[in-house]
Amino acid sequence: MKRWVRQRAPKREIFGWAMFDFANQAYTLLIITVVFGDLFTRVVVGDGPDYRLGNLLWSVALATSYLLVVLCAPVCGAIMDFTAAKKRFLFASYLLTIACTALLYFVAPGYVLLGVLLIVLSNFGYSVGESFIASFLPQLGPPRDLGWISGFGWALGYVGGMISAIFVLLFLGDVSAENFDRIRWVGPWAAFFFLVAAIPTFAFLRERGRRRQPPAKIGYWRLGLGRVRKTLRRVRAHRDLWRLLFSVFFSMSGIYVVITFSFIYGSQVIRWDESVRVTMFVLVQITAALGAASFGLLQNRMGTHRTYHVTLGLWIIAVLAIFATPGIASGLNSLFGVDWEAQHIFLIVGCLSGLALGSCQSATRTLVGLFSPLNRAAEFFGFWGLALKLAGAFSLLALGLFQILVGLQVAVLLCALFFALALAISWNVDEARGRRAAGEDL
């Protein structure tokens, strides 16, 4: 196995890999972050005036899907490594996401159970696919190139989100009960965009490795469990990876809350109007793309680990600003007599969050790629997926329950705590040692 050398893949293969980020961002942006989450809580459930039941059900649906990923991702990764079947697993997750997302069209006001079921299934397909596509990263280039390749994928993803959003802005309109017959098409549109835009991924991305069959009478699931157990017995050999994953659990806990509730927060706490929602829609995509691309290049200069720490610092500042936005607007009005509205200050805070969003996720994906042996990349990224989705389940349930007690504005401060814990835990991660351990385990 030591004969494997990480050489840069052809440009079209890197492009094909990155196009999956471009394609699946339509699901993240339109279904989870901006449109359907707001539609579900305010129109489908519609338990105003503060929508706490809708927020809780939304949290429970997403948390359930993430727990399913926790159960499946590492074992699926181990099976994919042994059988060289990453593309087949990726294709299956892609089809599941597309089918269930398209069916969201039928989630009308009052159809709460159907909405919960389809979100659980579609988000499971999308989320497990995230770890499947990420497992291809180590084969796309040598360690020095993984930062910019990962950053390129995240940046292209936010461009995809922007393009997919144009249709919504031009043709579907605002999220409201009065506009329901048009805005309900957001599910079929996100599914169609994902379907078409991911075609280059399956056309250009190569499946490396030798396809093998499991030994007689063992089967794929037992094989996967056995390989995972073997990896867990070697925890000490990859201690920097495990410490990183523990940190990722907390950083992604914060990010999942922001991704899931930022536009719900804007609607319920900031009480923005439609023009500000659309502006935020655009600004976050632009700043997130710029952040992912620029920090991806910065990783080569200052190291991926240090870059990760910078992004965590940005996140702590951003979350505190999100919480303080109404107070900042009130203070400016009192001190200077200016007519600052909270929704306009929230746009500035959104830009800061956008810069941190893509760059933080790109840095963690790169570090896992650097710390993963080539012959076990899918399995190691399965553990990355486990950390991500366990974080999603934990954080969304925590926020869903906490906001019932204290309201959404105060509950968002949990995110600042999550990012601070992530920073503290990752402080002693040794990037060079983690990369050596990956090479020694080939």
Short characterization:
This protein has 18 helices and no strands. With 442 residues, the protein is mostly helical.
Structure in words:
- Helices cover 80% and strands 0% of the residues.
- It contains 18 helices and no strands.
- It is mainly alpha-helical and 442 residues long.
- The protein has helices at residues 11-34, 36-45, 52-83, 86-102, 112-134, 143-172, 180-183, 186-197, 199-204, 219-232, 239-270, 274-302, 304-336, 342-370, 377-406, 408-411, 413-426, 431-440.
- 56% of the residues are buried.
- It has a single domain, classed as MFS general substrate transporter like domains (Growth Hormone, Chain: A, Up-down Bundle), CATH 1.20.1250.
- Helix 1 packs antiparallel against helix 8.
Broad structural category: mainly alpha
Give the name of the CATH architecture.
Answer: Up-down Bundle
The Cα radius of gyration reads 21 Å
Number of strands: 0
DSSP strand (E) fraction?
under 5%
Ranges where pLDDT stays below 50 over 5 or more residues in a row are 1-5
Number of domains: 1
CATH superfamily: MFS general substrate transporter like domains
Annotated CATH topology: Growth Hormone, Chain: A
The pLDDT mean sits at 84
Q: Helicity range of the residues?
A: over 70%
CATH top level is Mainly Alpha
Main β-sheet description: none
Order of helices and strands: HHHHHHHHHHHHHHHHHH
**Count of DSSP H/I helices:** 18
**Spatial separation of the terminal alpha carbons:** 6 Å
General shape: globular
